[in-house]
Amino acid sequence: MTDLISPIDEAGVEAAVHAAMSSKTPIAIRGGGSRAGLGRPIQAARTLTTEKLTGVTLLEPAELVASAKAGTSVAEFEAELAKAGQRLAFEPFDHRALYGSTAEPTVGGMVATNASGPRRVIAGAARDALIGVRLVTGRGETIRSGGRVMKNVTGYDLVKLACGSHGTLGVVTEATFKTLPIPESELSLVWEGLDDARGVEALCAAMGSPFETSGAAHLPATANAPARTVARLENFESQLRYRAGELEKLLKPYGAAARLDAGASHDLWGEIRDVAPLLGDAARQVWKISVAPSRAAALAARLGPLVAAHLYDWSGGLLWVAVEPTDDAGSSSLRPAVREARGHATLVRASDAVRAAVDVFEPEAPALARLSEAVTAAFDPAGVLNPGRMHVRH
């Protein structure tokens, strides 16, 4: 019996999951493997990979909709969309730099982890763009949920449940997304030298303006570079000149801004998306913290002794923190501070041993934990899909 199961179609996925359920043999679910370090370590002797389920199955630019099988690389999917003048507006996060991986990110992994980037602040997350999914549950049964249009639903919204469930509810075999046209151009405004509080304040002012800021990040000063506060604008070239000028006037109290052209802006936002400023030391452990922008700078200051490097995205609503390696990744100090700031934190990079010992995802209140377990058990009664990836089932 091989340790790797690699079905060529959905029927093969059903058979593999049904066999695992019947024998109560846990299996790990994998796409390309680029996000293997995200979540708690999985205890499973066998791995089911969707790498052979490939291909863009639907592309209708006029309807702003596209579908792809789970094993399709994100790069291939985005390239096919680009040929039609379309894109995934949520700017999928690429975990390869974070984990030092050379594996190719897949559509299934993107859905399973709700991998979303800086444009989420205005365009929503992967979960918001996902409008249809095919999923093989832990019962070995295929469920199709959603479709090719956005619509209201009643009962379980299985599309939203599946996105971000880290393979614990089922194996995604195909996904359908709402797409958007690629804008004609982009530029970024950069203010240098602002401290964290002033930087976040400027970003909030930019996001609250009528000038359609599609990215808002603050990169604190390092030994080699001054602090940078960055606002991105996208759309028609003629619009950009006007909107940039008006935004500069609005934010004049924060100093003069430099302008980055389309190429430089695109490169910078790729670095911000993949948190490149935090990745200098591969041993550092990395946290992703969601918090109200108004509390972000104060939280970072409170965490000061723990923090080796940090940056703000989503106008300060997302705080990335790198800490020097410890047995608990600083969890004993960080989680109480985050709770007091009414935020929540996810440990996104640490060793297997650390991720097995601490809560990787924000601990759930008892009532919510019971609900989560009930939902998971409904989809995977034998507990064979990615067991322990998110929380330990009782």
TrEMBL record:
Keywords: FAD, Flavoprotein. InterPro entries: FAD-bd_PCMH, FAD-bd_PCMH-like_sf, FAD-bd_PCMH_sub2, FAD-linked_Oxase-like_C, Oxid_FAD_bind_N. The keyword Ribonucleoprotein does not apply. Residues 1-182 form the FAD-binding PCMH-type domain. The keyword Hydrolase does not apply. It comes from the Bacteria. Coiled coil: none annotated. This is FAD-binding protein. It comes from Chelatococcus sambhunathii. The lineage of its organism: Bacteria, Pseudomonadati, Pseudomonadota, Alphaproteobacteria, Hyphomicrobiales.
